[in-house]
Specification:
By secondary structure, the protein is α+β, with helices and mostly antiparallel strands. It has 2 domains: about 100 residues, Sandwich (Immunoglobulin-like), CATH 2.60.40; about 90 residues, Immunoglobulins (Immunoglobulin-like, Sandwich). The chain has 3 helices and 16 strands. The protein has a 6-stranded mixed β-sheet, with no helix packed on it. A hairpin with a 2-residue loop joins strand 12 and strand 13. This is Ig-like domain-containing protein.
Length: about 240
């Protein structure tokens, strides 16, 4: 019994020793969002960089290697796209990307070689600036008597991705639609009464910004041509049969 206990303790000690010797940290994934044109820094969170020999950042087929001992930074040929827009902090190994572009989105993998070995993944998303959504009115293809008193509206946004388009009545959400991939056009309909005095707005947003367009019912909403005249004629015919 005693020997078995010693074996268990010895096994546990060896595992702990190997853990500290190899220093394998779990591969973390950190999500980072930034607006196009802004700078972003991917932090290593390392305070004692002297423990490491090399720091390597990888983005697809692009890599940057920083030799901590010699303080030399080397780039792969494919890093040309980041010329003058990327730098490594010699004190921490952190990576800064300046004047970001939407094409810079993706996974940036950090590996620091030494004791302990460190690996992190940064999932970076660069969002293009949002333009205010556009509100237009239209005549439904099939008109009913009720449509005479209602205004058909469409809120639209062009060439957007990773956004949500929403209609609000005051501060209350009425409807919304989301898109993850790049979309040529995104639209959301709404019907309101011509005499409606409430405040309506259409909002487009992504995780880092939003734009709002307020509805002016009196400016946008007009009766569809021919609808009122047709209904008036029908009512007159019923009231005064030949």
């Amino acid at each position: 019994m005693f020997l078995k206990l010693l074996e268990t303790m010895a096994y546990a000690f060896i595992l702990i020793f190997l853990w500290h010797l190899i220093g394998v940290f779990g591969d973390e994934v950190k999500r980072v969002s930034v607006k196009e044109g802004d700078s972003v820094t991917l932090h290593t969170d390392v305070t004692q960089i002297q423990k490491y020999n090399d720091t390597e950042w990888t983005f697809g087929d692009t890599f940057i290697k920083f030799n901590i001992k010699t303080q030399q930074v080397s780039y792969s040929d494919s890093a040309e796209r980041f010329r003058d827009r990327m730098k490594v902090d010699h004190q921490t190994g952190s990576l800064t990307i300046m004047n970001t572009r939407t094409t810079d989105s993706g996974d940036y993998i950090l590996q620091m070689y030494g004791n302990p070995y460190l690996k992190k993944t940064f999932r970076v998303t660069i969002y293009a600036p949002l333009s205010p959504p556009v509100i237009t009115s239209y005549c439904p293809s099939s008109s009913s008597s009720s449509s005479v008193y209602e205004c058909a509206l469409l809120c639209s946004a062009m060439y957007v991705g990773h956004v949500t388009l929403s209609w609000y009545k005051g501060n209350s959400l009425l409807s919304s639609i989301s898109v993850s991939d790049l979309s040529i056009s995104l639209s959301l309909p709404l019907e309101v009464e011509y005499q409606d005095k409430n405040s309506y707005s259409c909002v487009i947003n992504n995780p880092i910004s939003n734009q709002t367009t307020h509805l002016d019912i009196r400016k946008l909403c007009h009766t569809c041509s021919g609808t009122v005249e047709l209904i008036f004629t029908l009512l007159s015919w019923k009231a005064f049969p030949v």
